Amino acid sequence: MFSKACVYGIRASIFIASQSLKQNRVGLISIAENIQTPEAFTAKILQQLVKHGIVDSVKGPAGGFQIEKKRINDIKISEIVDSLEGNDIYLACGLGLKNCNSSKPCPLHDKFAAIRNNLKYMLESTSLYELAMGVDIESTFLKR
Amino acid sequence: MFSKACVYGIRASIFIASQSLKQNRVGLISIAENIQTPEAFTAKILQQLVKHGIVDSVKGPAGGFQIEKKRINDIKISEIVDSLEGNDIYLACGLGLKNCNSSKPCPLHDKFAAIRNNLKYMLESTSLYELAMGVDIESTFLKR
DNA sequence: TTAATAAAAGATAAAATTGTCCTTTATTAA
DNA sequence: TTAATAAAGGACAATTTTATCTTTTATTAA
User: Fold this and answer.
1) pTM of the full predicted structure?
2) Per DSSP, which regions of A39-84 are E strands?
3) Mean pLDDT, to the nearest integer, of A9-16?
4) Nearest residue on chain B to A77, judged by CA atoms?
5) Under a CB-based contact definition with an 8 Å cutoff, are residues A54 and A75 in contact?
6) Helix and strand totals (H; E) in chain B
7) CB contacts, 8 Å: A14 with chain B
8) Rounded to whole angstroms, how far apart are CA atoms A81 and A52?
């Protein structure tokens, strides 16, 4: 469904958010450990998230990654997905046609549109805050 | 969403079905042309579909691919997806966790389960027949 | 101002997916 | 029984994605 870059990015964002809610800035090593992802690859993904303004980074001793507390509720999962793999997931034709649209649809067009819209709505209406809270109270988990 | 192998395979199956409904056996070249896919790669995918018993093939002059007419309505799109990329799409954790389940869920577990179930249901309840019919009456299309 | 720390950036490398080409096998018809 | 046809199979190549390693830049504290 999603690329690894994307799921690692979502997991990383949730972890950073959950720590930011507790005023903790977190470093790469800690992130990779807590979401169980390859360190260097995770670093690349974090760079993207920083570039897209989803995550803030601070260099040097005591540096690391964080998300402004008051923004955590505004950031939706859709933004993370968009910045790591574009919005093709909700827009592209399910059967891979370039010019698939309601006037010249592929055989799965309508059925796929329904699914994609569900997905789009789900991602756009789910905030980092609610997911980070689940992790904080240990009702949900980011590894294993 | 789906791999190219998978979408090419679905398009090929629909095309073969639509031709089989008209009693036409079709060759690789014609298939690749009509669904606009790379010929040799399409051949590999067709081999998979033949191995999985979804498509029948006949070698030699006037040979080609076909699907038994009476089976076209029984074959669901889910079978094609299963044979070309396994059932991970409806089963695997949306955030890529190995052991994600309701007793130790990832943060998106429930929301993802809903989407995946929609997708699963859609693929399992859609037959090759209805999609092939749409192509035959030119209300849906397999290329461009 | 220097040493230590940690992210950013760049260059590669490995693996997976996608795509091509060539040979073999089966079938048909002349 | 031979020539032509078309799929099957195997080897290989290109591209994309995933992953690693090294160097540079920024920041902090001693």
Assistant:
1) 0.95
2) 56-58, 64-66
3) 98
4) B108
5) yes
6) 7, 2
7) 107
8) 11
Q: What is the largest CA-CA distance in chain A?
A: 58
Beta strand extents in A78-120 (DSSP E only): none
What integer pLDDT is reported at residue B86 of this predicted model? 87
DSSP letter (8 states) at residue A65: E
Q: How far apart are CA B132 and CA A38, in angstroms?
A: 44
Distance CA A10, CA A77 (A): 7
The rounded distance, in Å, linking the Cα atoms of A19 and A55 is 12
* Residue B4 CA from chain centroid, whole number: 11
Is residue A81 within 8 A of residue B128, CB to CB? The reply is no
Q: pLDDT (tens digit, 9 = 90+) per residue, A23-73?
A: 999 999 999 999 999 999 999 999 999 999 999 999 999 999 999 999 999
Taking only the tens place, the pLDDT of each residue in B33-70 is 999 999 999 999 999 999 999 999 999 999 999 999 99
Give the integer Cα–Cα distance in Å for A104 and B141: 7
B2 close to B81: Cβ distance less than 8 angstroms: yes
Kindly list the residues of chain B whose beta carbon comes within 8 Å of any beta carbon in chain A.
1-2, 4, 7-8, 10-11, 14, 77, 89, 92, 94-100, 104-109, 111-112, 114-115, 118-119, 122, 126, 131-132, 134-135, 140-144
The answer for residues whose C-beta is within 8 angstroms of residue A20's C-beta and 6 or more apart is A66, A67, A68, A69, A72, A132
Q: Tell me the longest C-alpha to C-alpha distance in chain B.
A: 58
Q: Rounded to an integer, what distance in angstroms lies between the CA atom of residue B56 and that of residue B54? A: 7
- Position B104: which residue type? K
- Pairwise CA distance, residues B17 & B23, whole Å: 10
Sign of CA dihedral B28, B32, A112, B24: negative
Alpha-carbon gap, residue A112 to A97, rounded angstroms: 13
